[in-house]
Amino acid sequence: GRLTGGISHDFNNILQAVMSYQQLLTMNKTSADPDWHFLAQIGDLTKRATDLVGRLLVFSRKVESSLEPLDMNHEINTIYELLRGTLPKNIVLTLDPSGGPCIIHGDRGQLGQVIMNLAVNARDAMPDGGELKIRSDTVMFEQDRYYRNVRMHAGEQVLLTISDTGQGIERKNLDHIFEPYFTTKEADKGTGIGLSVVYGIIKNHGGFIFCDSEPGRGTTFEICLPRAEEEDVVDAVEDKGDKKTSPRGHETILLVDDEPSLIETGRELFSLLGYSVLTAESGESALAIIERERDDINLVVLDLMMPGMSGEQCLAEIKKIAPAMKVVAVSGYSGATVREDIIRKGAVDFFQKPYLVETLSARIREILDHSGRSS
Questions:
Q1: Alpha-carbon distances, residue 52 vs 22, 37, 47, 82, 197 (angstroms)
Q2: CA 127 to chain centre
């Protein structure tokens, strides 16, 4: 887990650089530009790579689920195109969403990973083609009862069923498929991580997953998740053809990061948004700049993982020099505990890399505007 967390931090720094360069290239373009499609593809691939890092962190228990109201009908429809690009043409993909809402509290990225993992397993089990069917429905348990030898509490559940017509699984292996590193595939075909990740995600969502399979008769996975109230859902429609406008400013920001590429892209992006940008590649140099120019600096964007003086140590020293200084912490590490800890130590907010500049700039604008009203 510790090794995975360290690798994910370094990889998220790389993804942050790629995403920032992509944002620089798209900043003055529209969907009518001939390069727009290719740049949008870079952005999408970066997001997919971010999801992959999240998958590794879920397996290593280094990330918590971020739950929000979701309609599983919408989620399986959204992932349809991605699945079509993953599955060969000799596999028929059938979606059968419920006629009514299937509302849960879930992490969109992690549940997408569950569906993708199970779909990839189904693909591997159907080398000569077949059918993959994804179905959503609701089921009501009037009272506590046992379902597939698991005690289910009374209430309504969302049932997601993913079935294939593949080779099936021998009964002696069914009790072991969710164990880490257990696999019946050839050495170069699988690691045995996928289903253990799926199991961990579903457990984190307060749900259950069951598998029914026989050799030659295919495999069916049933996922039960507690149903949420329909009114909790707020539809969010994303228009990929339009570009979000990042809030602009005129204040001075000190950007502290030991990665030259992130210093370069951060300086360019925030300068284009109207800010004056100072940069430092270490905690020590950041403190020297704050000592000299504390009255002119309105906010610090501080990386937590740097050689020498760490970001946390730097934050503590900043608060000694300028107690009212607004500091937004960023890091390739993730998790609610990281955020809570750094805010408790004096940061006004925390962002996990990779982040979108419009997301960070919107929060910076909010912090600075609030600071201005308070002063």
A1: 19, 23, 9, 14, 11
A2: 31
Q: Is residue 1, in this structure, part of any structural domain at all?
A: no
More confident residue, 183 or 280: 280
Residue with tokens 């009908």: 73
Q: What is the DSSP letter of 106?
A: E
Last residue of a domain, one of 232, 263, 297: 232
346: left (phi over 0), alpha (psi -120 to 50) or beta: left
Q: Residue 208 pLDDT more than 80?
A: yes
Q: What DSSP string runs through 222-260?
A: EEEEEB--GGG-------TTS-PPPPP--SEEEEE-S-H
- 317's enclosing H/E stretch is helix 311-321
Asked whether 115 and 221 are in contact (CB, 8 A), the reply is: no
Q: What is the pTM of this model?
A: 0.56
CA distance linking residue 75 with residue 78, whole number of Å: 5
Which structural domain range is residue 317 located in?
Answer: 243-374
HSE-CB at 138 with a 13 A cutoff on CA atoms is: 19
Question: Looking at this protein, which amino acid is placed at residue 138?
Answer: T
The CATH number that applies at residue 225 is: 3.30.565.10
What's the pLDDT at 240? 42
- Rounded CA-CA distance 160/163 in Å is 10
Q: Quick one: 274 and 142 in the same domain?
A: no
Which of 252, 266, 327, 255 has its CA nearest to residue 297? 252
Q: Is 114 in the same domain as 164? A: yes
Q: Say whether pLDDT at 46 is over 50.
A: yes
* CATH number reported for the structural domain that contains residue 251 in this entry: 3.40.50.2300
Contact of 254 with 227, CB cutoff 8 Å: no
149 and 278 in a single domain? The answer is no
Nearest alpha-carbon partner for 20 in 240, 241, 236, 246? 246
Number of domains in the chain: 2
